[in-house]
Each structure stands twice: as structure tokens, then as C-alpha cells.
Write a structure and sequence with these properties.
elongated, Immunoglobulin-like, single chain, 29 strands, five-stranded mixed sheet, mainly beta
Length: 301
């Protein structure tokens, strides 16, 4: 009794190797493809023969998809490479396929036809992916663009596992601000959404240049002066906290230093406390450390 193999049976039959393994079939097609408007995806096969008896001119690769056999053409670049542009049917986002290669062996003056089958491979089309970062290095606080597809307002970028301020611009574009992480290192960038986490590449955080003016302070008790903190780029949403410590806490009275969102500088009042001398230490992650000598004198001195 005859039975129709159908796709499952035909694919199963494709696992049977015929001809004594005279060929090496290497699938160079990625398992996942970013969706494209044409809905056409290129399948690439590398064919290497292991026997001098193989007639190169007789090699005829085909790809079998959904029970249909499609001839493959030599690739424009690369030796032993063959391609086929497959148009995925509407409403489908995946397909199973295998390769069939027919060829001739010439032995003792006789020609023998052989064929080889590959294993079953899968192709999947994804509508959500992170394609590339605008830059591969920048100082902390820098705004970095991320392009891809399928982005939403709930997406959050993480740099080295730390959350970054993320701005949704469109389904194909996001921006984020590099968090204040130690400079001189490369960090993995990931995009987390409600349904999936995507690898967006990596970025190196370079040491930024933070300016503080004046470079030293000399005050009398009760006197006030302004310190100006200036960033190399605008502060991210929520502002940027700049940690400042001192070894003379009784001599220096000052508020917390936060550069407002969208600003590049902030003026901070410094008031002289008890007489003494020491330093202010500006140690923001991702920036060079700045040391500001401080001297507080008595008001009548």
C-alpha cells in the first residue's frame, strides 16, 4: 500500500544518508533572522567533497522545504557556496528544511549517481531584536542610541547589570544614558522587556573629565563661596549625583551635589565651619578623581 509521506515523512527520509558520505554539507544559515519587509530569507549551504572521484560539475544542491524541492544557485562570493532565497508564506514566522545534494562519481571509467542529505534545520523570523549601538565607547552619563525592532515603552536597558535611564523613541529606536560605573572597563548591554531579554552588544566606559572651579578654597568661618561642577555632557533624566567627601567634616558645610537632568553644570554653596585645613574629594564613578585643597580660618585672622 502506498502512503503519502507529507512534510514529516519527507523530512524523516531526508535523514537517511546515501552514497557513502562523499560530501560534507555545512549549513551556514542562521537559525534566527530579523524580520524584513520582503519576507525573503537567504539559505546558504557549503558543499565540500572528500573524494577525487567526485565530478565537481555534476554537483547539484537543492533545499527541501514543506515537501517542495528548490534548486540552489552558486553564491556570488565564496567557493563551494550555494544559496536560495526563500519567501516565507504569509502568516508564518518559521520553517523546517534540509538539503539534498546530487552528484556523480567517476570510477573505473564508469559514472555513478549519488546523493547526500543533511540533517533537519530550522529557520525562525524574529520581530523583536537589538541590532546595534550607536557607539562602542563613551564616558559615564553619555546618551547612547540603540536601534533594532519591536521596542516598547516598557523596555529597560541594563549596562553591566545596572539599570540605565532609558528613553523610548520609536519601535525601532531607544536611547539610554550610561550609568556611573567604574571607567576603563567594557560592559555588556542588555535590553529587558515584558516578554524577553535581548543582548544589545557591549560598550566601554571611558574616564570622563569633570571640572570643578575653583581648584582650591580658602574661607573664613561663616563665609560662603560657590563651587561650580561641570560635566562633559548633559546629565541624564533624574539628574546625576556627584559624591563629595572630606577629611575635615567640621570645617566644610555644603549640600549634596546633584547636576539637574538636562544640565551640564551646577553651582554649590560652600560655607566655612570650624578652622582647619584638608581636602574635598570628588570621586564620581566613571570620572577622574578631583582633590580640592580647603583651608578654613577664623574670621578675625
Amino acid at each position: 500500500m502506498r502512503r503519502n509521506l507529507g512534510l514529516g515523512g519527507l523530512l524523516l527520509a531526508g535523514l537517511v544518508l546515501l552514497g557513502g558520505c562523499n560530501m560534507s554539507l555545512v549549513n551556514l544559515t542562521p537559525e534566527t533572522h530579523p524580520a524584513n519587509p520582503s519576507n525573503v530569507y537567504t539559505l546558504t549551504l557549503e558543499v565540500n567533497h572528500r573524494s577525487g572521484a567526485v565530478d565537481r560539475e555534476s554537483i547539484s544542491p537543492q533545499v527541501v522545504i514543506d515537501g517542495q524541492m528548490f534548486p540552489m544557485s552558486p553564491a556570488a562570493v565564496g567557493e563551494n557556496l550555494f544559496e536560495f532565497d526563500y519567501r516565507l508564506p504569509p502568516g508564518r514566522d518559521r520553517a523546517a528544511y534540509y538539503y539534498l545534494v546530487r552528484y556523480d562519481i567517476v570510477s573505473d571509467g564508469r559514472r555513478h549517481q549519488r546523493e547526500e542529505h543533511s540533517a533537519i534545520h530550522n529557520l525562525a523570523v524574529v520581530n523583536r531584536y537589538a541590532l546595534s549601538l550607536e557607539v562602542d565607547r563613551a564616558p559615564a552619563g553619555s546618551r547612547v542610541a540603540l536601534v533594532g525592532r519591536g521596542f516598547s515603552r516598557s523596555d529597560q536597558v541594563f549596562v553591566g547589570g545596572e539599570p540605565a535611564e532609558t528613553v523610548f523613541e520609536s519601535p525601532t529606536s531607544l536611547a539610554f544614558f550610561l550609568p556611573a560605573l567604574p571607567a576603563g572597563r567594557t560592559y555588556q548591554v542588555t535590553l529587558r522587556g515584558a516578554e524577553s531579554t535581548l543582548n544589545a552588544g557591549s560598550i566601554r566606559i571611558d574616564e570622563g573629565r569633570l571640572r570643578v572651579v575653583p581648584e582650591s578654597l580658602s574661607l573664613t568661618t561663616g563665609a560662603r563661596r560657590m563651587l561650580v561642577f561641570t560635566l562633559p555632557s548633559e546629565a541624564p533624566p533624574g539628574g546625576l549625583l556627584i559624591p563629595v567627601t572630606t577629611d575635615v567634616p567640621d570645617s566644610v558645610i555644603m549640600p549634596e551635589v546633584i547636576v539637574p537632568a538636562g544640565s551640564r553644570s551646577v553651582n554649590i554653596p560652600i560655607e566655612g565651619g570650624s578652622p582647619g585645613s584638608g581636602n574635598l574629594y570628588v570621586e564620581a564613578a566613571g570620572f577622574e578623581e578631583i582633590i580640592i585643597p580647603v583651608t578654613i580660618r577664623r574670621g578675625d585672622s
